[in-house]
């Protein structure tokens, strides 16, 4: 039996990168303008040094600088947000926990906008640092509010955290609006509002230099804590009894969830529901043990966001929707489903 | 020789009230110590302090001669397992997966699951008569089956000290006796909170608690006297030797 399990995980070792590569290729091949598949392959071959063919510079630029960078960042963002949701669900023991619903994304937006508008510089890294501070403040606020509102354990506690998350989101969104109204120029304001909805349109290669390492770091930290996440199945006290250093584990994992969310928000704004839909779908497919759930969630999150991005570009011909619209269209019914199932228990 | 676990004048306050005060005891190797006392007398709190999960406000709990705070949680969990009074999950996990959690203190990010872990889990499931339910969903278990699975999880931890908070709760009479036989047969040191006097008689020593204080500590036959039971629980107790085995049997009558 164990041998079969080993063989099955062996299969995943090559199947996972293949699936990811297929999703990325799909993201590169499909777009607003139709580019023949042969051209797409040619461009990829030339850019990776496999071919010396001469290309149409516009096609080459669209495929390499626009579509591929965007697909890579979408993959990193999808994995990051899905893992962030998974971590929050395990630690808070709340199936509805997710960075967007808990107001962490809103806090990150406020932090990023503050840095951008104040012109403190630092570019994307500076904005990410601001977003990280914002995300942590939002989590502290929401957790504190939920704690004060109390409710002990169980369904009521779960509801209290989500309500606190709504309050936190509203407050940070209002703060963001205030900062924009106070100090941004009209042009800046329009750009910021568009970005806030969750948007990958502005993504180029430099964004991936931050997105890729942070997503890899987030995945590595989460993989390192697989057994810690498992240990929370019967609650925090049971985890402590199983030898988990609660304060350390919670600090590291919450900081990781906040960091990956913050970086994604600085690049593409607040994209909701990825952290909710993907982990639940994967629990359904691979079970609740994090040894399988973490890699599956990272992979599925990456594929999900790349595909959502493709859909956002082609669903209305000639118009690109913010990706947050697509994830919300899929995610909100998912939220309802999780809620209804939780009630039935 | 330093005792494995020692409670030194430990007290715990909650909301300005002492819920455990000035308890001292040393666990003797291999003994089974019973904790007896009315609801709210501080049994669970004392067990929590012994497990290092609740910090005494005054006094100390020492494990292998070291104060709890000086030890890493992981090290504590390798020596000591706790079956809490109630622990529930909404996650969809199987009985086997729940019992496998007990191996966490012995695994690490870089120390994978091995045959030894597999055997420990299988043996623990068998010990509590749950092997045939290993594949069942947690949510489908009855209260008693959950309790047995929790005990299996603690056994899978392979601890030197086993702390059990009312382990016979929810169990039918067959499994109550089975669990007590199991605990009594283990070579590990156990501390077990109990409400049934007949069960308490099987312990090597009992600690009787009243309002957070130690009312008596000693062998059950000496401690669990009609006078003490009347004092602590406000019931009139009569102890009748069983006509055949001679074992003491309690008869209770409530005092108004
Ligand atoms: N965190 C807390 N805050 C306030 N009071 C507490 C807290 N924990 C325990 N108590 C109180 O301390 C007393 C002792 O509680 P404990 O759970 O230790 O009792 P117990 O002997 O295990 O009771 P039972 O037989 O009902 O399990 C109770 O009156 C309880 O209400
Ligand atoms: Mg108790």
Automatic annotation (TrEMBL), chain A:
Pfam family, one: FecCD
Gene3D superfamilies: ABC transporter involved in vitamin B12 uptake, BtuC (1.10.3470.10)
Highest taxon of source: Bacteria
Location relative to the cell: Cell membrane
Transmembrane segments: 71-92, 99-118, 124-146, 158-181, 252-278, 290-308, 320-340
Keyword Cell inner membrane applies: no
Keywords assigned by UniProt, alphabetized: Cell membrane, Membrane, Transmembrane, Transmembrane helix, Transport
Gene Ontology MF annotations: transmembrane transporter activity
Membrane topology: Multi-pass membrane protein
SUPFAM superfamilies registered for this protein in UniProt: ABC transporter involved in vitamin B12 uptake, BtuC
Any one Gene Ontology cellular component term annotated for this protein: plasma membrane
Protein family according to the UniProt entry: Belongs to the binding-protein-dependent transport system permease family. FecCD subfamily.
Name of this chain's protein: Iron complex transport system permease protein
Lineage: Bacteria, Pseudomonadati, Pseudomonadota, Alphaproteobacteria, Rhodobacterales
Automatic annotation (TrEMBL), chain B:
Gene3D superfamilies per UniProt: P-loop containing nucleotide triphosphate hydrolases
Chain ranges of the ABC transporter domain: 5-236
Keywords: ATP-binding, Nucleotide-binding, Transport
Domain of life (superkingdom): Bacteria
A Pfam short name: ABC_tran
Sample GO molecular function, one term: ATP hydrolysis activity
Chain segments annotated as transmembrane: none
Family (UniProt): Belongs to the ABC transporter superfamily.
Protein name as annotated: Iron complex transport system ATP-binding protein
Species name: Paracoccus thiocyanatus
Classification of source organism: Bacteria, Pseudomonadati, Pseudomonadota, Alphaproteobacteria, Rhodobacterales
């Amino acid at each position: 039996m164990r041998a079969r399990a080993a063989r099955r995980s062996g299969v995943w070792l090559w199947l996972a990168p293949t699936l990811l590569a297929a999703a990325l290729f799909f993201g590169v091949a499909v777009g607003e303008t139709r580019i023949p598949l042969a051209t797409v392959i040619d461009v990829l071959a030339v850019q990776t040094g496999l071919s010396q063919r001469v290309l149409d510079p516009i096609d080459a630029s669209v495929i390499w600088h626009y579509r591929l960078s965007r697909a890579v960042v979408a993959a990193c963002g999808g994995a990051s947000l899905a893992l962030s949701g998974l971590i929050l669900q395990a630690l808070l023991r709340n199936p509805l926990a997710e960075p967007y619903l808990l107001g962490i994304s809103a806090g990150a937006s406020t932090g990023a906008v503050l840095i951008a508008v104040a012109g403190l510089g630092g570019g994307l890294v500076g904005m990410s640092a601001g977003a990280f501070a914002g995300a942590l403040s939002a989590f502290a606020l929401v957790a504190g509010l939920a704690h004060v509102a109390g409710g002990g354990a169980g369904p009521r506690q779960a509801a209290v955290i989500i309500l606190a998350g709504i309050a936190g989101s509203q407050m940070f969104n209002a703060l963001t609006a205030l900062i924009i109204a106070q100090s941004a120029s009209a042009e800046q304001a329009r750009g910021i509002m568009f970005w806030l909805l969750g948007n990958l349109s502005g993504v180029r290669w430099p964004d991936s230099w931050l997105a890729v390492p942070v997503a890899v770091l987030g995945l590595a930290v989460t993989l390192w804590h697989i057994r810690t996440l498992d240990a929370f199945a019967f609650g925090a006290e049971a985890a402590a009894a199983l030898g988990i250093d609660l304060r350390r584990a919670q600090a590291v994992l919450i900081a990781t969830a906040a960091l990956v969310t913050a970086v994604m928000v600085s690049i593409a704004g607040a994209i909701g529901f990825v952290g909710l839909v993907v982990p639940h779908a994967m629990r359904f497919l691979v079970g609740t043990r994090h040894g399988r759930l973490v890699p599956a969630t990272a992979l599925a999150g990456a594929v999900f966001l790349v595909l959502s991005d493709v859909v956002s570009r082609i669903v209305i011909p000639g118009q690109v929707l913010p990706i947050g619209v697509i994830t919300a269209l899929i995610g909100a019914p998912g939220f309802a489903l999780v809620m209804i199932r939780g009630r039935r228990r | 020789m330093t005792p494995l676990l020692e409670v030194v004048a430990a007290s715990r306050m909650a909301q300005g009230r002492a819920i455990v005060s000035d308890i001292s005891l040393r666990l003797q190797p291999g003994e089974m110590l019973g904790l007896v006392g009315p609801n709210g007398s501080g049994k669970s709190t004392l067990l929590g302090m012994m497990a290092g999960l609740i910090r005494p406000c005054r006094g100390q709990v020492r494990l292998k001669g070291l104060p709890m705070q000086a030890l890493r949680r992981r090290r504590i969990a390798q020596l000591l397992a706790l079956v809490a009074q109630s622990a529930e999950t909404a996650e969809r996990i199987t009985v086997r997966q729940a019992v496998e959690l007990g191996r966490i203190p012995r695994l690490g990010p870089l120390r994978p699951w091995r045959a030894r872990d597999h055997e420990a889990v299988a043996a623990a499931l068998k010990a509590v008569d749950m092997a045939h339910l290993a594949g069942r969903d947690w949510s489908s278990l009855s209260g008693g089956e959950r309790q047995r699975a929790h005990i299996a999880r603690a056994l899978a931890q392979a601890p030197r000290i086993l702390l059990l908070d009312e382990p016979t709760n929810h169990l039918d009479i067959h499994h109550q006796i089975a669990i007590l036989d199991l605990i009594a047969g283990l070579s590990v040191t156990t501390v077990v909170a109990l409400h049934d006097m007949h069960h308490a008689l099987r312990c090597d020593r009992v600690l009787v608690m009243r309002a957070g204080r130690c009312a008596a500590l000693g062998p059950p036959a000496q401690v669990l006297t009609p006078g003490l039971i009347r004092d602590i629980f406000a019931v009139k107790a009569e102890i009748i030797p069983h006509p055949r085995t001679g074992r003491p049997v309690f008869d209770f009558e409530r005092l108004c």
